[in-house]
Specification:
mainly alpha
Length: 76
């Protein structure tokens, strides 16, 4: 009987984790899918942000380019 009591805490974690996973998966199946209609494409926010970051990098690189050797530009 004592060995059974020692095994209960060791089994509580995996059994509890399995129950939580089952409940989470069960909750997903009840929601309607959020897939777009055929032929339409929604913009991925990550792609939009990536394009904005690339544009900003190009702008910053353009600002860092050294002036031509013949020009006399005042340092800022």
């Amino acid at each position: 009987m004592d060995t059974v009591l020692y095994a209960l805490p060791a089994l509580a974690c995996p059994v509890g984790m399995g129950a939580m996973m089952w409940l989470m998966m069960r909750g997903k199946s009840n929601r309607p899918s959020q897939t777009p209609l055929a032929g339409t494409r929604q913009a991925d926010p990550r792609e939009t942000e990536l394009a904005a970051l690339r544009e900003e990098i190009q702008h910053l690189r353009g600002a860092q380019r050294p002036a031509p050797a013949g020009s006399k530009q005042q340092p800022r």
